[in-house]
Amino acid sequence: MFDKQRYGRLKWACRRGMLELDVLFMPFSESGFLELSEEKQELFERLLTFDDPDLYAWFMGHQPCNDKDINSMIEHILSRVKV
Prior knowledge:
The protein is an all-alpha fold and 83 residues long. The protein has helices at 4-13, 19-30, 38-47, 52-59, 68-80.
């Protein structure tokens, strides 16, 4: 379960070193994240543990993500956040 402190840490982890990722993660963490099941919330939290270059490549479609669960979360975020 995401208590206030854990959710705060997650929102802080959404602040990345790349503006392109900030534009995706920040809006999603404030709106779409709270609508996810607990399992999907933990998947999003796991997604944030990857390095920025990998995340950038996956979200921009330059490289496929081989983890099907992470890939489904990427697709979900891209469908929710309009940039």
